[in-house]
Amino acid sequence: MTVREYAARQVAGGFHFLEGPRWHNGKLYFSDFAGGKVYVLESNGRARAVCQLPNWVSGLGFTPADELLAVAVQERKLFRCSGPEGLEEVADLSGVARYHCNDMLVDECGRAYIGNFGFDMDIDEICATDLVMVSPRGEVSVVARDLIFPNGMARTADGRTLIVAETFAARLTAFDILTDGSLTGRRTWAALSDRSFATVGDCLGSGAALPDGIALDTEGALWIGDAGGRAALRVAPGGEILDRVPTPELSVFAVALGGPDLKTLYLCASPPLYSHDPRMEKKAVLLAARVGVPGVPTA
């Protein structure tokens, strides 16, 4: 089967490292991870900062009351943002998250699913960790164990299945969602490599597609940011690559489907891992590509 390719254009630039894009109420929100700021992309194409966190920021989501939630990476906390300087702590995850917290999915009930690194990437040895859920009341619980760098997440349109990107396992894993938000029925949605990896270096050198941020479309395929490659990839259940958006000099770390018809794929792109220091250099860009299948609306 021929893999279709779509061309990307730059929408905005000059960021440290972009993560967590979310299409909400007709606008795109995204995090500048190492810059500690949350931005919204205005209709004039300019990015405006709407929230400043103490240090790094990653996953974003919105409550049923339309409040912006953001994950503080190093603090391992979930905050509610009420303006550029207004932060309210929702939950402290330091007792259950083994290392830095990362991406997040918030459902229409206000339940927040949050992943974490599980290990120090500077040490390189891969360790499994847990996926955490924060209830609308701020209660913290572990909903899945022994995941390898649980990262981007997507939920099927019927609200019954959660798909989690296990980045350094080169795998997408699915769970059934129970009525209380807990997870069961773990299974592999797509294996993008037949190998297991002991270190990040081994994983990056394997050539396998490494799913980071993800977005589900109405045909049941997933767009993934390939943290180890130079493209965004559209993946079918089982792992077949259907489409791609090449980004020759950059890796893609997160994606979102948005625009009025949900057919604009936004890509958070930066130089490859370990090739530069995003704390010191602003080389990250926001890209966009028009694709053929619309996304599934998100909360």
Protein architecture, described:
With 299 residues, the chain is mainly β. The chain is 2% helix and 51% strand. The chain has one helix and 25 strands. The chain has one helix at residues 200-204, and strands spanning 4-5, 9-15, 18-24, 27-32, 37-41, 47-52, 57-62, 68-72, 77-81, 87-92, 101-106, 112-116, 129-134, 140-147, 150-155, 161-166, 171-177, 183-191, 211-216, 222-226, 231-235, 241-246, 251-258, 264-270, 284-290. A five-stranded mixed β-sheet has the order 1-22-21-20-19, with no helix packed on it. Strands 2-25-24-23 form a four-stranded antiparallel β-sheet, with no helix packed on it. Strands 3-4-5-6 form a four-stranded antiparallel β-sheet, with no helix packed on it. A hairpin with a 2-residue loop joins strand 3 and strand 4 (27-32). The longest helix has 5 residues, at 200-204. The mean pLDDT is 96.
Provide a short characterization of the protein structure:
This protein has 299 residues and is mainly β.
Features:
about 300 residues; mainly beta; four-stranded antiparallel sheet; 1 helix
